[in-house]
Fold:
Amino acid sequence: MSENKMKDVTYRSPDERQAEKNSKYAPKSIFLNGVLYENPALRLVLGTCPLLAVTISAKSSLFMGLAVLFVLTASEAIISLLRNVIPNKVRIPAFITIIATFVTIVQMLISAYFPALNESLGIYIPLIVVNCILLARAETFASKQKVLPSILDGFSMGTGFTLALLLMGSIREILGCGTFFDMQLPLFGSTIEPMMFFMLPPGGFFVFGICICLVQLIMKKQEKHSAGKGTSPCGSSSPNDCLSCAGCNLCKGKEED
Amino acid sequence: MKLQVSNSPHVRDKATTQSLMLDVIIALLPATFAGWYYFGIRAVLITLISVASCLLFEYISRRVMKRNNTLYDLSAVVTGLLLAMNLPVSLPFYMVVIGACFAIVVVKQMFGGIGNNFVNPAIAARIFLVIAFPKAMTSWTVRTGAWYSLKSVDAVSSATPLTSINSPEAPSMWKLFIGDKAGCIGEVCIVALLIGALYLLFRHVIRPWIPLAYLGTFTILVFLFGHQNVFDFSGNLATLEGWQNLFYECCYMLLSGGLILGAFFMATDYVTSPLTNKGKLVFGFGCGVLTFLIRYYGNMAEGVSFSILLMNILTPHIDDWTMGKPFGEVKENAKA
Structure:
């Protein structure tokens, strides 16, 4: 990593942030940010409710992820377009209205063309409206950035969420059901009895915890590659973390050596 | 007189993790042998597989996580032995390996190895297996075939004494005590467990507070609120027989299931039980209440492992409540 980028790692003062808001971001870093550094499910631990509920099978995880991906991309685009029109005081209701529009579209499409899927995903499709991933991205990214970066951000965040769901769904379905995308697997299910544990909530929490643990491991490895200096107090050290840090306020404007 | 000045720790003892674990293993052996005697060679194999796979997983995970080798502190052997003692003899062998993997890799090593596990690995693995394979984990067998028979088919399935207390096939009190009954490999022989527990108490490996509070609370609760209890005013207790039945139920409940094994060997685990004597009493009390509630009002026959697991999770808080204050401590300084 070059010396210039190293400086980006450190915390920036509010003025610098303001200046940064108007600057462009490299598409690659936005994409990596969504998929890995700020993966909504495994790094930010957002949207945990649908995450734990729908990951009992790989298929329903994939479709849930795709639904979120679509709603996220579309709503971020619209919110970004309207960011100068929406009054600051009523921005949250406005965001929710926009998000709800797309969720309604998705739900109608799913119930029209995939009724079985609609049955299995159930309440979790309408609940995308209040999914914190969408509100967080609308609030921290789309309402401040131009349209193209916002679309890219929505797409990459959605991809990150989908990948996380798919990972968890696959693990839980293979171990808990002995199948993968409803296909019978050779070893599991026959030789090894399916483990009910992974279908139940405790199994979901365990798989979730282990996935978070693995992603944390990858991040630590990356940290070692980049130099040790410049870890921000919120524990993140990736150059992309402050890009849209939702304001955990841990750093309180102070830089830690 | 010569005054020596030295750094802490000032209290020294020859005990090491290894020596303590060795004591626990020695204490567990009588009950293990009794289990082997009652359940045959399949029990021996389950024990060996459990211990071997615990050691293997410990070695692999320490290696993968680039930590030092901890095979020699024998804690993995204790976990393997305890896990095997908590399994029914008819369990398929691969499930034993899965349980050992869960105990060592997920519960123990992922949280930082010995001393950092938040619950007892053997108990967590047992509960994992109960939830993952409910049928295999609750099919109790009494051996009828030859002792060298490997197949569990040769065994007759039977209800655990806990579910058959009021039925005619309930084992007699003597059978419960010496272990001739259905159950997990290590929990059946109460007399062997008590010999091991006495050894641990005699060697000062464990203190009696947790088992006493646990068994005491449980017995009192059964006495007060069991199926036959002292608040029974329908006239049952007017006769001597009524009182006999009441005491019979108390003893029966104490001697069946994994209560003795849990109280003496699993609830007293150093890492996951409170440090202070007061805390140990609270811990044992909680275990007793939970075991009573699960056995009498839950939909499972046995509640020992679940209650110990729940109290394990509460242990840091119990420690917070019961930790003594250093003499002369001022509150403001304590906060700083």
